[in-house]
Amino acid sequence: MRIGMITGEYPPLQGGVGDFTHELGLALQEAGHEVHILTTRMNDRQPSPVQEEGLTIYREIPDWGTGVYAHLTGWMNRLALDIVNIQYQAAAYQMRGGINFYPRAHRRRRNVPLVVTYHDLLPPYLFPKAGPLRQWAVRQLARHADGIIVTNGDDYNQLTDDLGDALPPLRLIPIGSNIAPHPPAGYDRAAWRSERGFASEDLLIGFFGFLNRAKGVETLIETLKQLRERGVPARLLFIGGRTGSSDSTNARYADEIDRLIAQMELESYVHHTGFTTPPEVSAALLAVDLCALPYRNGASLRHGTLHAALAHGKAIVTTTPQTETPQLQNGVNIMLVPPDNPAALVEAIQTLWTDPQKRASLGQQAAQLSQEFSWERIAARTVEFFRTLLKQHSAQA
Predict the structure, then answer these.
(1) pLDDT tens figures, 163-219
(2) Per residue in 97-146, pLDDT tens?
(3) ∠ CA(168), CA(149), CA(93), 5° rounding?
(4) Sign of CA dihedral 368, 381, 57, 32
(5) β-pairing, 50-52 with 55-61?
(6) Where in the sequence of the chain do the CATH 3.40.50.2000 domains occur?
(7) Taking Cα atoms as reference points, which of 121, 112, 115 lies closest to residue 145?
(8) Considering the domain 189-373, what is its CATH architecture?
């Protein structure tokens, strides 16, 4: 198949949607498909298109308002694509609402079926005091697509409830880890820790992902404080970049977290890798003793950061999912605590500190679970859905 993918962010821009598109594109290409990716133009000097790792990248879109429609339609029709997959997250499209209304506005001008992959259901900004219209814009994108992919049960249930019989064909296909467990050549865990000032007896807690209010980082900072007060030699390592390229509100939140760390006098126990290469991120994930991911809205299989921790075989303490997620088995392959509850997080982490065997068992089971979310499987399920939609499209033509 000739597959087109549209995304508001793509490497080197930082962001989970861009990383997902890159990994899925590679897996589709490895499976024998021709992949074209249309994304944001970062500067006027960029050539377009370019070949990167067998993928054809078009960095051409300066602005994701409604003025982009003719460009999108011309691109997909000119390339004679078989199907186009829009990777949707409002922040990845500069919080503009243009992409939300494109499927309806250009339905008769394009010759290609559109599939929308929802990375979340958060709405675009639109305009001041847009209110309920913002969430309506999210539903419009779904209603006028030819097919929908969601990455988790919460979004599946929400779209089903919102659209009912008006819902196009829908599939739940979880994402995978955008960081493979491949550290730099010659990596030695003990040496890596020692070179960065971490003692062998330290309990090194890892947090991977951009800082934003949904991540519950305040809870994690309070947990670190209480662990230190209990005599646990805990240190916290923030792995990767602080904020992504798409959402400016994350920078303000990161500054708030810095102030909280200073107020609690924890600067000596909080460390940062900063934005770095995938092998270095992998090295850091392998170096920590456990990962703490206290998502405020509960753990979800939409989180690439959770998948990365699973893939690296880490003992993970995270928050109870809002929707039943049978893959996450409390006490077997993960430990679950209530959100916004430092006391519960402290108890879970201290339990794992005093029980290395339990920590190892959780990590082994996490690595086993991660095999369900390989990119090869994700690509195969995606292609199967695309083929189903193309048959329906041909029958209706």
Answers:
(1) 998 899 999 999 999 899 999 999 999 999 999 999 999 999 999 988 888 899 999
(2) 889 999 988 887 888 999 999 999 988 776 666 677 788 888 889 999 99
(3) 105
(4) positive
(5) antiparallel
(6) 2-176+375-396, 189-373
(7) 115
(8) 3-Layer(aba) Sandwich (3.40)
Name which of 268, 267, 291, 299 is nearest 363 in CA terms. 291
Domain 2-176+375-396 falls under CATH 3.50.50.60 = no
Would you say residue 255 has pLDDT above 60?
A: yes
pTM above 0.90, yes or no: no
Average pLDDT, the chain: 92
Query: According to the 3-state scheme, what is the secondary structure of the chain?
Result: CEEEEEECCCCCCCCHHHHHHHHHHHHHHHCCCEEEEEEECCCCCCCCCEEECCEEEEEEECCCCHHHHHHHHHHHHHCCCCEEEEEECHHHHCCCCHHHHHHHHCCCCCCCCEEEEECCCCCCCCCCCCCHHHHHHHHHHHHCCCEEEECCHHHHHHHHHHHHHHCCCEEECCCCCCCCCCCCCCCCHHHHHHHCCCCCCCEEEEEECCCCHHHCHHHHHHHHHHHHHCCCCEEEEEEECCCCCCCCHHHHHHHHHHHHHHHCCCHHHEEECECCCHHHHHHHHHHCCEEEECCCCCCCCCCHHHHHHHHCCCCEEEECCCCCCCCCCECCCEEEECCCCHHHHHHHHHHHHHCHHHHHHHHHHHHHHHHHHCHHHHHHHHHHHHHHHHHHHHHHC
Least Cα distance to 226 among 336, 335, 353 occurs for: 353
